[in-house]
Amino acid sequence: MKKWFSGIAATVLLTSGLLAGCSGKTDDKAGQGAGNAGTSAPAASKEAPKAEKVKLTIGSWRTEDVDAYAKIIQEFNKTNPNIEVEFKPTKNTEYNTQLNVALQSGSGPDIIHLRPYAAGAQLADAGYLEPLDSIKGLSSFPKETLLAATGSNGKVYGVPTVFSATEIFYNKKIFQKYNLQEPKTWDELMQICETLKKNKVTPFAFGSKEGWILSLTQGALGPAFYGGTDFMNKVVSGQTNFKSPEFISSIKMMKDLTPYFPDNFVGIGMDDMRNLFVTEQAAMMVMGDWEIAVMRKANPDLQMDVFPVPPKTAGGKATVTTWVDGSFAVNAKSPHKAEAMKFMDFLTTKEAGTVIVNNLLKPSTIAGIQAQDPLVAKISKYADTQSTPYMMVVYFAGGNPTTKGTLENTMQGMYQNMLTPEQVADKVQQSADTWFKPKK
């Protein structure tokens, strides 16, 4: 989706999902006719038995997407009626552990939903994934996109399906009630927050209970303060680091937003955040596009829209934060690799891209796919023209503990008044120093 994807180095720890998924046999031996030379009667021939169905399982962390994948699989079955595919997701917080345990025991799902970048590379490097050399459709994907599922040997192990974009969702009805417009600068956004607070409306649905919410929110809002892609490139090349004033200002900004968060936000998780927004108790929420379908299901009457994160100063560029979110790979131990490869082939087609974008409601990785949904189309346009990378996912999800995890944990400490923004930045840099090598 963007040139900045090139050079992607490992990040994110992958995975998890269990579920061994395999049944049925692929043997298809046709009966042979017996011809008897020298006899007057022709030999009877046996009718070839119908091909036996093969069952594939897909492991994933996306429990919210069961209905969408039912439609995706239905599209696949139009040309592959003898391959039964079952989407068996595992709870997000349990997926990594369960998948690793299953793979280490030689089992696991036939098709694996890979978390992006380093996570996928780690599974590939461990020998758990089958290289996709035979999937011709991958040649139409930009190298920058494929890097999200590329192993350290340069081979591609996953088919990227969708991009993720993080922006600010807002309630159109609440904005109209208080005569609020989409902000063009950070100061305008803060004025909106003040107006909402004075009218006893929670400006942001937010909680610090789950660490990933913190890195996601900082990854979306932070570029307005640290300088977006230009700053990221300087960090990656070693020209600056996380102890810089720019990055510290992005952490301080997160702390300064506290008055606009819900009461007791330190105990609020994703489910509570979503509930605050869809029940119209909160006017805005910083979140990824994957929540669109979930929120609409929770409240079909919700009037929501999105806007990019406004720049800190007038004349700056508004941004949305983007990355490749998830690829599908084939388990190297699957007894049905040939059939699983057919599903990989399918994922590279425009037919798949169309059904995916219109059911998962996320920008497609396949060029030329137009979203029918106006909101998804709007997000896709922002992602094409105003994107900046989710730095902690794309480059800094390595280390033990990961640098991304260190940011999350220390920000939780900051919200409990245990750490200052400067101390958060210092600990993030200490983590990066243990493993990250600048790319000259």
TrEMBL record:
Domain of life, per lineage: Bacteria
Residue ranges, annotated region (Disordered): 28-48
InterPro entries attached to this UniProt entry: Bact_solute-bd_prot1, SBP
Family: Belongs to the bacterial solute-binding protein 1 family.
Entry keywords, A to Z: Signal, Transport
Entry keyword Signal: yes
This protein's record includes keyword Isomerase: no
Transmembrane intervals: none
Originating species: Gordoniibacillus kamchatkensis
Signal peptide bounds: 1-20
Name this protein carries in UniProt: Sugar ABC transporter substrate-binding protein
